[in-house]
Amino acid sequence: MTIHIMDGMAVLRRRFENEMQGPRGVMIDEFARLPRDISVWCFEGQNHLAARRKLFPGYKDRPSTMTDGLFALVDVTRRMLQHTRALQVAVPGMEADDVIAHLAAEHSNADNVVIYTVDRDLKALEGPNVRVDCGPVKVRLTAGDPTSDVTIPPEQIRLYKTLVGDTSDRIPGLPGFGPKAYLACRPALLQVAMLALVAGNREVEPWVRAGMKEATATRLVTADQSALIRAYWNIIGFQTLPSTWQEHITVGKLDRAAADACLREHMQ
What we know:
Elements (H helix, E strand, L loop, with lengths): L1 E6 H11 L4 H10 L5 E5 L7 H6 L12 H14 L5 E3 L6 H11 L5 E5 L13 E4 L4 E3 L8 E3 L5 H8 L14 H5 L3 H12 L6 H5 L4 H7 L2 H14 L12 E3 L4 H12 L1
Parallel strand pairs: 1-2, 1-4, 2-3, 4-5
Antiparallel strand pairs: 3-8, 6-7
């Protein structure tokens, strides 16, 4: 059995914008799935940014690139999915990433879990039975030379993005501490220092022992900067779903004719 977990908006945008496929391609794929397999489409819940923006108001503070036409394609696809065996999940106050992380952990002992996304942050979920269908998080040491790329392992992605930052999510990271500075450190000891900071330890020594320059570490442990780093750590980490999250699952009812009619109606 394979559990297919879709990062809904990311997958649909990739198919519609980059791969030039329409909703019918999604329908064909869903009806072609093996009966023993499960398909789960995860979407953003209402007010999905609110919790993280309480921690850091600048989180994902950028103009939307969604167009009316793209919204329409997503809407008809979601209506069509109701006539397949697919499940759809959108939990209020939660981002799709949080739902995906919960599902990946809950089903990590399944035969095979595949997460479909373009969001490389989700590579942090990879494990023996969990595969994330996108490229790895990489650091390019020499501009224009892809052979110099260094891959950040899944277990380090949260730490790396907390300290270095994530421009796509508008997380600045620690000023003056870039990818090369991170790679010059010992990640295992950085992790120890980070967990100590989250617990309230603002000592410089653990960071210096991990390989961080003393001046940088001294700046990190100031009250204001350490509060920001803890906020970034919590933002980048996956949030715990409410106990009622399963109430927000929509289970599709297999009906090929109804799915086809839904798409034909959109085309008229």
